[in-house]
Design a protein that fits this description.
The complex is a heterodimer of chains A (323) and B (314).
Chain A: H1 48-78, H2 100-106, H3 113-144, H4 150-161, H5 166-178, H6 186-193, H7 198-209, H8 213-221, H9 226-237, H10 239-255, H11 258-263, H12 272-282, H13 288-320
Chain B: H1 3-12, H2 19-57, E1 60-61, E2 69-70, H3 74-80, H4 83-115, H5 121-134, H6 138-147, H7 153-160, H8 175-185, H9 188-198, H10 203-211, H11 216-244, H12 248-253, H13 267-277, H14 281-309
Helix pairs in contact in B: 2-14, 4-8, 4-9, 4-11, 4-13, 5-9, 9-11, 11-14, 13-14
Classes of the chains: A mainly alpha (323), B mainly alpha (314).
Chain lengths: 323, 314
Amino acid sequence: MTKLQTLPAPEHEQGKDGKTPGSRTRGYGTRGGAGRPRESRGTLAFSRSARVKALAKHALLIITGGIMIYPLLWMVVSSLRPNDLIFREPGLWLNSLEMGNYTDGWSALSHPFGHYMLNSAIVVIGSILGNLISCSMAAYAFARLQFSGKKLFFGIMLLTIMLPFHVVIVPQYILFSQIGWVNTFWPLIVPKLLATDAFFVFLMVQFIRGIPKELDEAARIDGAGHPRIFLRVILPLMVPALATTTIFTFIWTWNDFFGALIYLTDPEMFTVPVALRAFVDSQSATSWGSLFAMSIVSLLPVFLVFLFGQRFLIKGIATTGIK
Amino acid sequence: MSAISELSSMSRRKGPVTDEEKRANRRDNKAAYIFLLPWLVGLVVITVGPMLMSLYLAFTDYNLLQPPEWTGLDNFTRMLGDARLHNSLRVTFTYVLVGVPLQLAVALLIALVLDKGLRGLPFYRSVFYLPSLLGGSVAVAILWKQIFGTTGLVNQVLAMFGIAGPGWISDPSTSLGSIILLHVWTFGSPMIIFLAGLRQIPNMYYEAAEVDGATTLQKFWRITLPMLSPIIFFNLVLQIIGSFQSFTQAFIVSGGNGGPSDSTMFFTLYLYQKGFGQFDMGYASAMAWFLLVIIGAFTAINFIASKYWVFYDD
């Protein structure tokens, strides 16, 4: 499973996988859900015990999943309740719809909450563009070009994936504060323009390695140079990897707290996570309803990306093991 | 499959450079460095430069206002006598050594249940995966703060059974536990890696074992676990590296001070307080390098130990 394409993706679920074609026909549609060859013993493939087993599994999964998701559902419901009920009502039943928490929360800080979302959006868009451009360029060089020091650089690139960011944060802060970039979005965006999210370089290298080299060679015979091959041949074919990068960059940047906490101290420049933090500090325990409401507003974009981009997320994690 | 296996195979593979490869080298060098330029600049300015700089600062006294003053090993001897730092190490180790195995065990268990060709797998997978996307956010940390508060959701549910629960987050003996629970809650992403790994195990092994009359448990111990061991190892390495750097949850849940009585004072939280609260940048740099050494040591131990339990099929 070195290549992104050979990975089990949701839509391939019913079929084979790359390594052992044919030998793993799966019985997702069969009665009782346990009709897979691995499960069957002799002639009693669809015996009662298999069905009981499947039922037990469903029960286990529903209970576990229910417990996991319950807090989130409860937060949504609580945000629509009067404040005092949050500390008395563990259920999910709503007697009336209270939108006041949302209007209160929206204007609870010095700027309307939309202002912080806009700030976050700017950082997110800048980071996505930065990662897409810089990481795909580096990945093309690592996957397709021969150059001196390639092995060494590739090894260093892999090592930087695992480097704890705390080791560089102090001098980075000193550097950016000396340029006068504190309370600007540059410290959060510029590193992405310089391919410091090596995760994505690696992800894209893996993907490009799976694209047939004959395509490059055909283009080269037609007289195309590397910039042209990169732009016209490779980039259009690596759209799935670019999509995965976009989605992960979106979620990580949207959630990024540490960077914003250090570099953005002026409320004017707050992104959503630091704005929420300021909200918690200012409102201690008095208005959990509006705090919940804004928390949900802040989670909504991530949730939407999850809904529509799940396929790419799951492929991406399975290939590189990123969070 | 992963950055880790790639890295370990690189050190093994040392082929001779052929003439053809040398010619190719000359041809592409210029183009390659142009494509690599952003990454190279980033490596120097954003990564390696700051690393060396922080190594230097670790031996100085520096508060951003006056120029750094060389103090030799002072910061490190201070660390030896800093009781709060020792406590923060204990908190972090507990978090990593309890949270990571627990999270991976749950991830593996659910992946095993899901792998058996169950109906509705995409739905279940989504439900289990969602928390790991949201878990790192401030919003979920806020939710956690309420849920495990004195009058939070957990105690409301317990009250229905007549149990008066403690203030999980305000009690130093349970506060770290509730943050570990938040880590376990995000088991979705390792679960997906396990699911991908489980599908790579050739079915013929199970068929052969069935012919020989192996039980389900035997199949798990003799086939699934060995075949999955590279993936378990990979998850373990990544999760340990990531967990040592955990910050947001403890920061929000404790209101930024690592309380109550330093029970959730993670190493990173203390580093933040030293560096960006008190602007003791020299000490913070020394702490950062200490963290790097700890993480490096854990990763090295992991790799050495892996020789005894990780099984490679090839």
